[in-house]
Amino acid sequence: MKKPLLIFDFDGVIADSLNLYQQLVYDRLIALEYNFLQSPEDLQALFETNVIYGFQKRGVHQHHINEILLELDKASETNHISLFEGIPEFFQNIELKTTNSIVSSNTTLTINRILTSHSLTSHFTDILGGDGATNKVDRIHFLLEKSSLEKNRTFYIGDTIGDMKEAKLAGITAIGVTWGLHSEQKLRDARADYILHSPKHLADFIHTL
User: Fold this and answer.
1) Which of 12, 27, 179, 202 has its CA 20 to 30 A from that of 21?
2) Contact 154, 173 (CB under 8 A)
3) Between 156 and 131, whose confidence is greater?
4) What is the gyration radius of the CA atoms in the chain, in angstroms?
């Protein structure tokens, strides 16, 4: 039997980058005179769908979205982005048991830079950032076709409502993790198939597959 395919979101699941990135996004949107951010909840709401769609839905021009993504990339160069506690051990724990990929709204360059700084790049067969295609569902389908795996052997691991929705649209199992952006209740409301509370719990779950 083929190994299960784990598809990870990056920021909020692997990289503990959300506070830095949210502040940067907030500052840039205010500087660009977008006035839809009235509270911290408004910022979180950007992530209730794919974050790029969140920008577009609120009328952020594409060239401004590109500017923000470039700023996020620069931030990963000038700031040390930590991994969540237990993430390196998690990948050591499941080594050889799964095939791992990343599908994220962050850029492929930024993801690779952060993974390289933590010596984790070798754990992933594919890294598909938002610079390749905005729609996560399309990228998930690409990985399904490439792997020739059944959908019930493929799992998307994310921390937001948008992640759960896109996994469901792709027809694969949605695993919500509670150490990222959205609360357990929000992940439940988004119909996550499983909700896990630490990388250790996630590893234990993977070993049951």
Assistant:
1) 202
2) yes
3) 156
4) 16
- What is the rounded distance in angstroms from the CA atom of residue 197 to the CA atom of residue 8? 15
pLDDT number for residue 43: 79
Please answer whether residues 136 and 53 qualify as being in contact, where contact means their C-beta atoms are separated by less than 8 angstroms.
no
Burial label for 65, CB within 10 Å (0-12, 13-18, 19+), is middle
CA–CA distance, 174 with 81 (Å, rounded to integer): 26
Nearest alpha-carbon partner for 143 in 113, 110, 118, 167? 167
Which residue do the tokens 């996630």 mark?
202
**Quick count: other Cβ atoms within 10 Å of Cβ 119?**
9
Q: Please, which residues bridge with residue 101 across strands?
A: 7, 126
Mapped onto helix, strand or coil, the DSSP state of residue 102 is strand
DSSP state of 84: P
- For residues 25 and 38, give the distance between their C-alpha atoms in angstroms, rounded to a whole number: 14
Return the SS3 of 196: strand
Question: Tens digit of pLDDT for each residue in 192-208?
Answer: 999 999 999 999 999 99
Exposure of 157 by Cβ count < 10 A (0-12 exposed, 13-18 middle, 19+ buried)?
buried
Query: How confident is the model over 27-56, as a mean pLDDT?
Result: 82
